[in-house]
Amino acid sequence: MRAIETSALTKRYGETTAVDSLDLTVPEGTVYGFLGPNGSGKTTTMRMLTGLTTPTSGTATVTGVSVTNRKALRPHIGYLPEEPPLYEQATAYEQLEYIAGLRDIPQQEVQNRIDSLLDRVGLSPDDAATRIADYSKGMRQKVAYVQAVLHSPDIAFLDEPTSGLDPRAARTIREHIRELTDEGTTVFLTTHILPVVEEIADTVGILYEGRLVAEDTPEQLTRRAETGDARTLEDAFLEVTSTDPAAGASVEAEDD
Ligand SMILES: Nc1ncnc2c1ncn2[C@@H]1O[C@H](COP(=O)(O)OP(=O)(O)OP(=O)(O)O)[C@@H](O)[C@H]1O
Ligand SMILES: [Mg+2]
């Protein structure tokens, strides 16, 4: 079964077409890196795939469940939003315990899972007992990440998972994401940090003005189609997301 399948998935806000007729297929147990300039529709796509916003048209299924069936969808997915809502007055531990309760994680497993994940992302027992109101940006991001994967979801949607993290913490998260796929989890992530997808993504999709303008393995995207010469993923990104024909494969050229 496909982890994610969309057909002509579209979201309009008034005159703005945030996501324009998107066709995506993501196989189970893979990492899909979703790239694109600011405002290209990445977060909007994630919000549709997690049932948080309703598509204007088109269809999408996640683990075979229609995204319009929010109740059935919920147990299958974990979501790290762009701006994670956390309970400021709770400690990290309390926040995660609460989420574990909502997620039907067996009571005898809850403490173990929370402890080992917090330790993994570099939050100490002292940190776990600290109110989130007193957390730094990176500490919040770590708790939000743990919250998204705590119940071992079939699919983890991670919007900028390494945002605000120091290099060591960012590496830990990248490694952990790869480990999730070893356990069969599918990961759909956005990032502006191109080395992240180069390192961990099986497939990279590049969105530009709501449309998918490139999709391939990181290896293929960094190989120039005409010459086979190596280039950076940044070069590829800049080419396919440019309106300037001189920059190379512009969006218009892609349609030829
Ligand atoms: N709730 C909303 N109401 C109106 N317009 C919206 C809404 N959410 C997103 N948009 C618009 O949809 C487009 C895509 O936004 P989106 O947040 O999906 O971009 P993004 O690719 O995630 O960008 P970034 O890299 O900056 O996070 C933008 O033009 C944005 O202004
Ligand atoms: Mg976004």
Summarize, please.
The protein is α/β, with parallel strands linked by helices and 256 residues long. It is built from eleven helices and ten strands.
CATH class group: Alpha Beta
What is the helical fraction, as a range of percent?
Answer: 25-40%
List the secondary-structure elements in sequence, H or E.
EEEHEEHEHHHHEHEHEEHHH
Strand order of the largest sheet: 6-7-8-3-9-10
Bound molecules: adenosine-5'-triphosphate, magnesium ion
Q: Can you identify the CATH superfamily?
A: P-loop containing nucleotide triphosphate hydrolases
In one word, what is the shape?
A: globular
What is the total tally of β strands? 10
Topology of helices and strands:
Elements: E1 2-13, E2 16-27, E3 31-35, H1 42-49, E4 57-62, E5 65-66, H2 70-73, E6 77-80, H3 92-102, H4 107-120, H5 125-128, H6 137-149, E7 155-159, H7 167-182, E8 186-190, H8 194-200, E9 203-208, E10 211-216, H9 218-221, H10 233-240, H11 251-255
Parallel strand pairs: 3-8, 3-9, 6-7, 7-8
Antiparallel strand pairs: 1-2, 1-4, 4-5, 9-10
